Amino acid sequence: MSLLRFKEVEVAFNRTPVKVEIPKEDPSQYFAKYVFNREKMQEYLPKSTYTALIQAIDNKVPLNRELADEIAVGMKKWALDNGVTHYTHWFHPLTDGTAEKHDSFIEHNGNGGIVEEFSGKLLIQQEPDASSFPNGGIRNTFEARGYSAWDISSPAFIHDNTLCIPTIFIAYSGESLDYKTPLLRAINSIDRAGTAVAQLFDPEVKHVFSYLGWEQEYFLVDEALYAARPDLSLTGRTLLGHESAKNQQLEDHYFGAIPMRVEEFMLDLEIECHMLGIPVKTRHNEVAPNQFELAPIYEETNLANDHNLLLMSVMAQVARRHHFRVLLHEKPFAGINGSGKHNNWSLGTDTGKQLFKPGKTPQDNLQFITFVSCVSAAVHRYNGLLKASIASATNAHRLGANEAPPAIISMFLGKQLNDVVDSLVSDDRDDNIHFNAKEELNLKVSQIPEILLDNTDRNRTSPFAFTGNRFEFRAVGSSANCASAMIALNAAVAEQLIYFKSAVDAHMAAGMEKNDAILKQIKIQLKKTRNIHFDGNGYSDEWKEEAARRGLDCETSVPKIFDAYLAPKVVEMFKKTGVFTEVELNARNEVKWEIYTKKVQIEARVFGDLALNHIIPVASRYMGLLLDNVSKIKALFPSDKANDLAEQDMAIIEKMAEHIKLVRNMVDQMVENRKQANRIESMRERAIAYHDNVAPLLDDIRYHVDKLELMVDDEMWPLPKYRELLFIR
Ligand code: ADP
Ligand code: MG
Q1: Which of 15-24, 416-425, 429-438, 605-614 is most confident?
Q2: CA 558/CA 687 separation, integer angstroms
Q3: How far is the CA of 471 from the centre of ligand 2 (A)?
Q4: Ligand 1, pocket-test mutation among 344, 375, 412, most atoms within 8 A of CB
Q5: Cα–Cα distance list, 674 to 73, 97, 559, 678, 686 (Å)
Q6: Quick check: CB of 481 below 6 Å from ligand 1?
Q7: Residue 64: how many CB atoms within 10 A of its CB?
Q8: Which ligand is nearest to the CA of 209?
Q9: Binding site membership of 18 for ligand 1 (Cβ less than 6 Å)
């Protein structure tokens, strides 16, 4: 081990756990301590203000200025009571993560002093000078301003002595520049469309809510080792590193005992999450060494997503207190599992019904199958879009990499639900002939067991699986903003619900009874979309061929996967549901291509530097030692004997020289390919050039660098190796 590496490893291995102080009160006492929730609103706002605000939240109506002023007074008081000095509008730009610009509460008081000031105006709307956020050309120079506006459906919270106000971020011309705006639109759309369908079964339903329960996977690495790996610190993943002799093959990490240091970290994180009102509940080791998972109790999608974004930043902070770095990259280490963020998604009514949960009565089950058939239709029609919604430069390393969902979206139903669907689609009767719906109902629908949840039947290879009372969209990347997937899914399903309702109305207008009409439409939809259902092994080559035959989107190039957003049917769907305009879709794709390009570009630069300035010098030095050795042998021994003794060294020298030459050539080639790609005007074409001509070289160079790692004297190797990075003591 090189001296430097030895020091880092020594530090990492000898760390003692950082003890966490557990609050004296019970979690229920400190839960949401730092959230301006209804309880705090009641305490800090005049009664009439409180009532008006709750009404505005529940009925989704905008606040007026007077009301906002009153709320701002109460919110400021609460914040100051908690030692807060600054406030910020907290929003989700099209980059990773969140954005915030802090202002302090101070204003001149007119007498040379200051007062703490926070008005309704500052609460509800601001104009962050955010001209450098990605916008895909929407905010050109004459329309350069955007503004952020409070999302009253997500409560304000205190983090780092700062009052954070969740906001949307839009251009003055009205286009969204963030993730939250379209997410709220998609949620409204599924609320309207879902309510209209749910009312077929229960006229009392006023709202349909979309729920999200994410499962966040992540890796931890000791900070000393992290700092010694420029690839990890600059790109979030290891660009080189030979597999460790031991990694996950013994399967001894999954659900295994959590190392003490990690346990303290988790505890610290959980306490902090609970104070911020994030209902985290489940923690465990994941499959790969140093990989873990955290999952909350599910919440309404908008809030759940805010909580996930907040979690990701809190995680990074808490990890540093414990001398760790969190890796949210989808594939930080080659050869072992990557990290995803399963999105458990469901719909429910304001009357308390879970719409993906089979019920006790035929009527309940008819409703259940109705909603399942609309999801089926949406996933079928928009499988390409759903894939685009989770695609990114980083998630590309995970998709199709034989442990994560394949790069084809299909839908897993499980045996019981599949049998039901089979029996519904099996008869070829002309749907125009009147049939006895009641009889069919009893025969086919009422037999669905009340609880379909069947843990043994879980197919881990499916990207989109029915799991008893919800669907689990597993292809989402660990670093992603879940909004992207949730926007696409909710909007696509909303459109199919709209379609379902109008088809049923048409059948009824033609004289059918309601249940007949519903059943008829369910059958039509399930029959038409049967192609999306697949319960087999999603990793197999046969499935890739079969999926292509079925007409599913099998594109694997991320820049081309993004094209799905601009397909005419997708543009139409987003327009119909009011989620995106065509201008927004075009602008967002520009941003996606640009971010893709930049990520690959950064990796290529970092790796070029590592290869030329870290690896090759060390490899050459070691080769020089071997050469010295050979020439000394040749000087001291008779030539026959010398050739024999030096044979192995000579072979290694030749191999090393070959690897070094290839690495140099390929780094040159990579620089050249980048130059060529950079000359391309079109963002899409540039991203494609990076995908086709730059990204593959990263893998090729890595192959040779990893070979060199096996040859060079361990004492000289400058970077912490996989076996050191991957096993926390
Ligand atoms: P597993 O790893 O077996 O999938 P977890 O317990 O890790 O299960 O995660 C399950 C996630 O699904 C949790 O976040 C949970 O809150 C969420 N969930 C459970 N029921 C629903 C539902 N009806 N709608 C949305 N999310 C749900
Ligand atoms: Mg899961």
Answers
A1: 605-614
A2: 9
A3: 10
A4: 344
A5: 54, 27, 16, 6, 9
A6: no
A7: 12
A8: 1
A9: no
- Ligand 1 geometric centre to CA of 482 (Å): 15
Q: Taking Cα atoms as reference points, which of 405, 413, 407 lies closest to residue 535?
A: 413
Residue nearest to atom 2 of ligand 1 (CA): 215
pTM here?
0.94
Q: How far is CA 212 from the centre of its chain?
A: 12
Q: Give the type of residue at 188.
A: N
Q: What is the DSSP letter of 96?
A: S
Pocket of ligand 1, candidates 211, 212, 215, 307: which has the most ligand atoms within 8 Å of its Cβ, to mutate?
Answer: 215
What is the per-residue pLDDT for 211?
98
pLDDT digits (tens, 9 = 90+) for 648-665: 999 999 999 999 999 999
Dihedrals φ, ψ of 593, to 5°?
-65, -40
CB atoms within 10 A of CB 657: 14
Read out DSSP for 122-143?
A: HHHEE----TTS--TTSS-GGG
Give SS3 for 611.
Answer: helix
Angle at 88 between CA 86 and CA 94, to 5 degrees: 150
105 Cβ inside 6 Å of ligand 1 = no
DSSP state of 144: -
| pLDDT at position 610 over 90 | yes
Ligand 1 pocket residue status of 292, Cβ below 6 Å: no
Residue nearest to atom 11 of ligand 1 (CA): 213
Q: Please give the angle made by the CA atoms of 158, 159 and 165, to the nearest 5 degrees.
A: 55
Over the stretch 465-495, which tens digit does the pLDDT of each residue have? 998 899 999 999 999 999 999 999 999 999 9
Contact 346 CB / ligand 1 (< 6 Å): yes
Q: 185 alpha carbon to ligand 1 midpoint, in Å?
A: 24
Q: Is the CB of 255 under 6 A from ligand 1?
A: no
Q: Encoding tokens for residue 42?
A: 């009641």
CA 187/CA 191 separation, integer angstroms: 6
What's the distance, CA 573 to chain centroid?
Answer: 23
> Given a cut of 90, is residue 35 above it in pLDDT?
yes
Cβ of 407 closer than 6 Å to ligand 1, yes or no, is no
The mean pLDDT of 90-99, rounded to a whole number, is 86
Whether 471 lines ligand 1, by a CB cut-off of 6 Å, is: no
Q: Is the CB of 211 under 6 A from ligand 1?
A: yes
Helix (H) or strand (E) holding 70: helix 65-81
CA 298 – ligand 1 centroid, Å? 7
* Residue (of 720, 704, 712) closest to 625 by Cα position: 712
Q: How far is the CA of 551 from the centre of ligand 2 (A)?
A: 28
CA–chain centroid gap for 376, Å, is: 22
Three-state secondary structure call for residue 683: helix
- Rounded distance between C-alpha atoms, residue 376 and residue 364, angstroms: 18
- Give the number of other CB atoms < 10 A from CB of residue 374: 29
Q: How far is the CA of 477 from the centre of ligand 1 (A)?
A: 17
3-class secondary structure per residue, 178-233: ECHHHHHHHHHHHHHHHHHHHCCCCCCCCCEEEEEEEEEEEEEEEHHHHHCCHHHH
- Ligand 1 pocket residue status of 296, Cβ below 6 Å: yes
Residue 52 to residue 61: CA distance in whole angstroms: 10
DSSP secondary structure string for all residues of 340-384: BEEEEEEEEETTS-BTTS--SSHHHHHHHHHHHHHHHHHHHHTHH
Atom of ligand 1 nearest to the CA of 356: 23
Q: What's the pLDDT score for residue 97?
A: 79
Mean model confidence pLDDT for the chain: 90
Rounded Cα–Cα distance for residues 266 and 172 (Å):
42
| C-beta of 257 in contact with ligand 1 (< 6 A) | no
